[in-house]
């Protein structure tokens, strides 16, 4: 009785919100009561599943996770989720979410600074909690993200945020979690339209330019590292200051590299500075699996919904890539380009499942593995005692668009509003047509 | 005596038009010589079919006086004894830009940055588009080029066709000899051919920006030239010249076999038979090339070997590159075998010296010497209409011939002289005796050695060998100046140090060389080299023939191509979940029978004798996916964006059968794709519906019997909000409306004029397409986003009396669904795209659901080669966003697009009689877990996950 009433009131409050514009979708209030969700299939995020499980959480933290229909005896608010599925909030890695609103409108683009060595650039200060996009992600289960600067060779620092916040300060789960580097690559000439195109520069000249860029990157790191050893530098260099955390091991190093040669070069580069990097992109990682395992490298793999790089590649290679790598024992994070596209993140994990990876392991690629790569796994990434109560209830398999039905979601214990601009516009016009029908 | 000679001279000079009359003044005294030469005792290759031995060639001035065995040499002739030597007609290159200062035209890629130049800025009363430049006459701009001529003569060429390679209509080429002297004196034929290409060259006009635009412009120019002759309103040099040039041969330069087919198609439309210069990949589709009936001019450019030693780099060398490297040298043989008439050109070779290397490689790969000779002499002569002057050695023809040491095609043959217009050009000294051979060499203080002289020019390299005690083999430095010869070598021991020989040829037959020797210790003496025998050719030259084992041609010529296409079979798919898209709905444990490319039956417990049975237990069977909005399989750009209306361009002209995305789409269950023009302008080009018959030719991909469509577009792209210079009208949605109003108004007037004045009206391909729309013979699919512009076009259509068939993208369709429904307009949208432009700020994933619920025929399209690979799952998103029933959801990517493309009588559902375009899925097709196992088009399994070959 108690529980039912609760659900009913929830539904009512949600529907009453429908009439308001996006601006009125407010961040949820702090968790006030301890809640027990019972009867659900809990997808923990670490590869395991708890059938008929119970999650007890209070003050925003998971108090305990119980199996086999165990329920707490305490006087807590109960949510019966029998037959439903609970997942840890999905984490959108390396995204420009909150840093872009409309791709084609320059004024809304805040993810790419000019310059080649921008280690001092920080995404968190530009993260826009009032963007209309995050709400459209939450309703598919994406509850956290890593807004990431792009461009240049050293792009700057990302941060990890949760997607229900008043401002970037309370959005932040971890600021400056990782420094992002793009490994310089030699562009390959693929021919213009109709074969009339001609390369602008010779392959040799292009390769030389790449080598020069790598040399610059190497000296940037070498000088920054030396600088970090000076206790009181005569002249403050903000770029080098920003690198201190990286050398001290307090900020991760993400390097984007795709070809097998570049991946190996990028890893060896970082190792020279005593850093184990996370490799992002990683299109050809499957060709250097042993090397990556030997070096214990975490990979942030690009979206499976991509065309193969080469005409001759297995047409389904992008679908299989993450599965091949994860099955080989590598720590794999799945990512997807863009910001609004992040609502498809669960289906990327679904695709990887279809092409060979165990479903719970695929789930880990967008939850616990991501949290580990960003250094936030102590507080989030899985449904385990002591971690943030950031998870959602779906009526069905959330990795499949056929069955992803997010009914209720919690971020740090807060019962968030799942409404969004799209639902509101749907309602507005659906109501118009049904009224006209009558 | 003198008198008689004079009389003969007079008689002869009156019979030849090459007599030395000239308007050109001479600075100093005249030096007119008889110019009479007799070449005796030669093997004369008159043409590929006739060789005379021990024959004589007589020339006088610029002409051949006689060719024959036992021909008497009249007095006054300089006799040149060519015993043991060969005479060939000089070679002819039908495709050069020799003597043109501008050189080859700048090859501008399609789709480059636009300059906002709409009408030509060229001075003079020429046409509007600078890429149509038939007013170019090579005879007016040509000038002899000693350096280049020398280079070509050394290869063996005596005359060439000179083409100004700039523009789409390039004007008239001229045939010239490679003689030195005044430009006037070398012209063989002043108008050999009118020339064309698909490349706009240096034209500063924006239009065309695409291959299909080039094709459309050329097509329109043919019509304009026809019209020009019948009208008095316009003075236009370009059209005048274009019209005048239609009676001479027509040469079309293209890039690749697909462009041969494209050029040929235009030719057939206008009754032209082009001579087509292509790039040497004809072997990849020899049958289609043969079917054009075109004569070809083919280069001898063969790809260099790729560096595949580093596996990491080898990955980036594609199968088509590797196979191209392997098979390109077989191209000439392949053309010969197919019976295609073709000339060979040195055009495109990095170094003209490669000509013989590559020609010999082609011969090793099956080209006959006879064909090779014809392709560099008689055939180019006949293509250019200069057979009466050059190409064979006959009386009265121009004295263009080669003297060679041997059969021209034999390895090691030396071209001694190349005579052009009766003028001698020495390539290699002929009077130098041939000293090649093995010699007994005796050097004072050294003893008996063997000397071997080999190489070109009668000997250019030497080697020394000693057998027995202190046996040694070493190369020697060999230098020769006429009869003087010096040879340096080092035997390492006995004696140590350099040995230098310097001497002369004392006897020519057999050769004996005598002279002084100097050893490293300072002692001097004599040496004698006595001819022993002919030097044996090094055997490595024959090796390639022995190891030649070439792979087959594959279709397409790339990864996932096959030597033989999969075949149509009778297939019984048993016991699956069958999504019929018909009244039967979704049938459990049902069968589908495919026969003769059609669906024979759908139902339970079907049987068919001889059918290949596929057990589909646990699997799902659907109709093939139809992508209403695709841009795959196009060549040379999919946008003709220079003008706000480009209704004249046709995607049909540029279908590229080799695009790997065809195969990739099949792997995602797609069987039919609607290839649309881009959205760069309010009225774009005519689209082409294709079936994904991977491996077939471009023409065979086309969906037969489908209605024609045309792309319209609204909003940011046509306003060029996010690109372009902002100079092209329109730049607002207000201007977009008036673009349509104006175009349709003009089209109506045009149609009326046609009905009144008939053929005297200038045929306008752009307006023809609009008239087709007005007459319900062509249908609109319109790229659209926001409700205001959608509403606008509906109003324009109503007021001007045309119909909109489909709004594509239509992301705000949900806001005007009632209006679309009232007008019977279909909506083909994205499942969930938004936020990428300002006009999609209110795009919602519920759009499909709302349009569907209002009763609009609703589809999801891809607009993207990647998304097309999982359109089934995009359809699945309509279940997520809006709870569309699953059966209806699948129709968003099958039956509904078929309806809006007017092909639902043929495809889109599983029903007896429809095309056997069928997909077998591993799971519910709307699920993310579904993979396409087999994709049938016309009953042929072009995709089979078990056979994924490469």
From TrEMBL, chain A:
One of its GO terms (molecular function) is hydrolase activity, acting on carbon-nitrogen (but not peptide) bonds. The keyword Signal applies. SUPFAM superfamilies: Composite domain of metallo-dependent hydrolases, Metallo-dependent hydrolases. It holds the Pfam family Amidohydro_1. It comes from the Bacteria. Residues 1-23 form the signal peptide. Residues 316-413 form the Amidohydrolase-related domain. InterPro entries: Amidohydro-rel, Metal-dep_hydrolase_composite, Metal_Hydrolase, Metallo-dep_Hydrolase. Keywords: Hydrolase, Signal. PANTHER family: ALPHA-D-RIBOSE 1-METHYLPHOSPHONATE 5-TRIPHOSPHATE DIPHOSPHATASE. This is Amidohydrolase. It comes from Pedobacter miscanthi.
């Amino acid at each position: 009785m108690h529980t039912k009433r609760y659900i009913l009131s929830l539904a009512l409050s949600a529907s009453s919100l429908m009439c308001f514009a996006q601006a009125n979708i407010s961040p949820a209030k702090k968790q006030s009561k301890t809640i027990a969700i019972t009867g659900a299939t809990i997808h923990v995020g670490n590869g395991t599943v708890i059938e008929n499980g119970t999650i007890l959480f209070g003050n925003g933290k998971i108090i305990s996770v119980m199996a086999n229909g165990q329920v707490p005896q305490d006087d807590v608010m109960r949510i019966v989720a029998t037959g439903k599925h609970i997942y840890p909030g999905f984490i959108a890695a390396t995204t420009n979410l909150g840093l872009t609103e409309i791709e084609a409108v320059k004024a809304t683009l805040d993810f790419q600074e000019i310059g080649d060595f921008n280690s001092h650039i920080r995404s968190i200060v530009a993260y826009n909690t009032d963007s209309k996009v995050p709400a459209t992600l939450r309703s598919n289960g994406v509850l956290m993200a890593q807004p990431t600067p792009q461009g240049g060779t050293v792009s700057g620092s990302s941060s990890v945020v949760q997607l229900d916040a008043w401002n970037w300060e309370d959005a932040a789960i971890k600021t400056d979690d990782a420094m992002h580097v793009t490994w310089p690559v030699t562009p390959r000439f693929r021919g213009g339209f109709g074969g009339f195109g001609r390369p602008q520069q010779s392959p040799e000249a292009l390769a030389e330019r790449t080598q020069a860029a790598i040399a610059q990157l190497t000296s940037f790191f070498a000088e920054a590292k030396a600088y970090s050893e000076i206790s009181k530098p005569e002249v403050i260099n903000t770029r080098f200051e920003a690198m201190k955390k990286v050398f001290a091991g307090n900020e991760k190093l993400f390097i984007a590299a795709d070809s097998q040669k570049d991946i190996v070069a990028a890893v060896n580069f970082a190792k020279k500075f005593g850093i184990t990097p996370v490799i992002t992109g990683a299109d050809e990682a499957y060709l250097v699996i042993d090397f990556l395992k030997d070096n214990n490298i975490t990979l942030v793999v690009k979206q499976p919904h991509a065309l193969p790089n080469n005409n001759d590649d297995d047409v389904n290679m992008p679908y299989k890539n993450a599965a091949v790598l994860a099955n080989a024992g590598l720590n794999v994070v799945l990512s997807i380009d863009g910001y609004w596209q992040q609502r498809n993140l669960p289906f990327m994990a679904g695709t990887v499942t279809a092409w060979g990876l165990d479903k719970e392991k695929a789930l880990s690629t967008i939850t616990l593995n991501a949290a580990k790569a960003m250094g936030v796994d102590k507080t989030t990434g899985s449904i385990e005692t002591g971690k943030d109560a950031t998870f959602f209830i779906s009526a069905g398999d959330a990795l499949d668009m056929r069955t992803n039905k997010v009914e209720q979601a919690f971020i740090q214990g807060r019962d968030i509003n799942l409404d969004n601009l799209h639902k509101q516009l749907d309602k507005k016009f659906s109501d118009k047509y049904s009224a006209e029908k009558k | 005596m003198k008198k008689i000679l004079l009389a003969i001279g007079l008689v002869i000079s009156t019979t030849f038009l090459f007599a030395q009359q000239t308007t050109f003044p001479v600075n100093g005294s005249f030096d007119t010589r008889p110019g009479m030469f007799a070449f005796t005792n030669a093997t004369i290759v008159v043409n590929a079919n006739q060789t005379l031995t021990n024959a004589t060639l007589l020339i006088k001035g610029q002409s051949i006086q006689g060719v024959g065995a036992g021909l008497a040499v009249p007095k006054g002739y300089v006799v040149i004894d060519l015993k043991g030597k060969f005479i060939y007609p000089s070679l002819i290159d039908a495709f050069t830009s020799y003597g043109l200062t501008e050189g080859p035209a700048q090859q501008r890629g399609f789709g480059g940055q636009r300059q906002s130049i709409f009408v030509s800025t060229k001075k003079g009363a020429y046409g509007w588009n600078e890429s149509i430049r038939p007013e170019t006459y090579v005879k007016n701009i040509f000038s002899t080029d000693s350096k280049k001529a020398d280079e070509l003569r050394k290869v063996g060429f005596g005359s060439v066709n000179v083409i100004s390679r700039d523009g789409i209509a390039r004007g008239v080429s001229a045939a010239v000899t490679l003689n030195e002297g005044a430009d006037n004196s070398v012209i063989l034929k002043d108008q050999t051919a009118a020339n064309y290409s698909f490349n706009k060259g240096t034209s500063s006009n924006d239009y065309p920006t695409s291959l299909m635009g080039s094709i459309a412009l050329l097509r329109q120019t043919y019509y304009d030239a026809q019209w020009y002759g019948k009208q008095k309103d316009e003075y236009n040099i370009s059209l005048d010249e274009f019209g005048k040039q239609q009676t001479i041969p027509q040469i079309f330069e293209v890039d690749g076999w697909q462009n041969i087919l494209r050029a040929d198609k235009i030719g057939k439309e206008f009754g032209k038979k082009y001579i087509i210069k292509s790039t040497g990949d004809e072997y990849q589709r020899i049958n289609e090339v043969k079917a054009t009936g075109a004569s070809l001019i083919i280069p001898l450019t063969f790809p260099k070997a790729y560096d595949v030693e580093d596996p990491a780099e080898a990955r980036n060398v594609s199968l088509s590159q590797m196979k191209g490297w392997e098979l390109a040298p077989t191209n000439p043989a392949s053309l010969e075998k197919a019976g295609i008439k073709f000339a060979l050109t040195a055009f495109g070779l990095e170094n003209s010296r490669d000509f013989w290397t590559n020609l010999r490689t082609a011969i090793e790969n099956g080209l006959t010497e006879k064909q090779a000779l014809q392709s560099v002499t008689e055939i180019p002569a006949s293509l250019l209409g200069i057979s009466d002057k050059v190409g064979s050695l006959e009386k009265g023809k121009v004295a263009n011939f080669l003297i060679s040491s041997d059969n021209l095609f034999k390895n090691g043959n030396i071209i001694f002289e190349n005579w052009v217009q009766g003028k001698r050009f020495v390539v290699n000294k002929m009077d130098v005796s041939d000293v090649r051979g093995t010699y007994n060499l005796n050097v004072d203080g050294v003893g008996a050695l063997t000397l071997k002289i080999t190489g070109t020019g009668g000997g250019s390299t030497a080697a020394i060998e000693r057998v027995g005690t202190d046996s040694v083999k070493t190369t020697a430095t060999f230098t020769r100046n006429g009869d003087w010869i010096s040879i340096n070598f080092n035997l390492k021991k006995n004696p140590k140090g350099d040995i230098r020989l310097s001497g002369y040829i004392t006897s020519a037959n057999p050769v004996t060389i005598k002279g002084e020797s100097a050893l490293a210790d300072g002692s001097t003496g004599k040496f004698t080299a006595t001819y022993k025998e002919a030097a044996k050719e090094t055997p490595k030259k024959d090796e390639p023939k022995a190891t030649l084992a070439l792979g087959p041609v594959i279709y397409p010529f790339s990864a996932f191509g096959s030597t033989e296409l999969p075949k149509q079979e009778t297939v019984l798919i048993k016991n699956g979940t069958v999504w019929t898209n018909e009244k039967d709905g979704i049938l459990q444990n049902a069968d589908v029978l495919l026969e003769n490319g059609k669906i024979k039956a759908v139902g339970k417990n079907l049987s068919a004798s001889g059918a290949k049975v596929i057990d589909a237990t646990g699997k799902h069977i659907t109709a093939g996916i139809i992508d209403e909005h695709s841009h795959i399989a196009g060549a040379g750009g999919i946008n003709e964006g220079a003008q706000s209306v480009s209704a004249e361009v046709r995607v049909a002209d540029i279908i590229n059968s080799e695009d790997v995305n065809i195969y990739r789409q099949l792997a995602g269950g797609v069987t039919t794709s609607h290839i649309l023009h881009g959205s760069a302008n309010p009225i774009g080009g005519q689209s082409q519906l294709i079936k994904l018959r991977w491996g077939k030719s471009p023409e065979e991909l086309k969906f037969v019997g489908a209605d024609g469509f045309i792309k319209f577009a609204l909003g940011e792209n046509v306003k060029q909000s996010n690109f372009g210079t902002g100079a092209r009208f329109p730049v607002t949605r207000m201007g977009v409306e008036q673009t349509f109003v104006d175009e349709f108004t003009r089209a109506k007037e045009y149609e009326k004029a046609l009905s009144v004045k008939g053929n005297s009206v200038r045929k306008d391909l752009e307006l023809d397409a609009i008239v087709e729309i007005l007459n319900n013979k062509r249908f609109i699919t319109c790229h659209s986003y926001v409700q205001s512009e959608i509403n606008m076009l509906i109003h324009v259509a109503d007021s001007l009396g045309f119909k909109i068939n489909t709004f594509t993208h239509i992301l705000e369709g949900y806001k005007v669904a009632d209006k679309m429904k009232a007008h019977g307009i279909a909506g083909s949208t994205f499942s969930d795209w938004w936020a990428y432009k300002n006009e999609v700020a209110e795009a919602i994933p519920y759009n499909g659901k709302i349009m569907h619920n209002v009763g609009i025929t609703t589809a999801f399209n891809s607009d993207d080669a990647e998304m097309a690979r999982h359109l089934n799952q995009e359809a699945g998103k309509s279940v997520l966003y809006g709870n569309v029933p699953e059966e209806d959801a699948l129709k968003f990517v099958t039956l509904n697009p078929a309806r809006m493309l007017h092909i639902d009588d043929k495809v889109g559902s599983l029903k007896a009689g429809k095309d056997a375009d069928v997909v077998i899925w591993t799971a519910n097709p709307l699920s993310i877990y579904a993979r396409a196992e087999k994709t049938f088009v016309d009953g042929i399994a072009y995709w089979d996950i078990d056979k994924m070959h490469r």
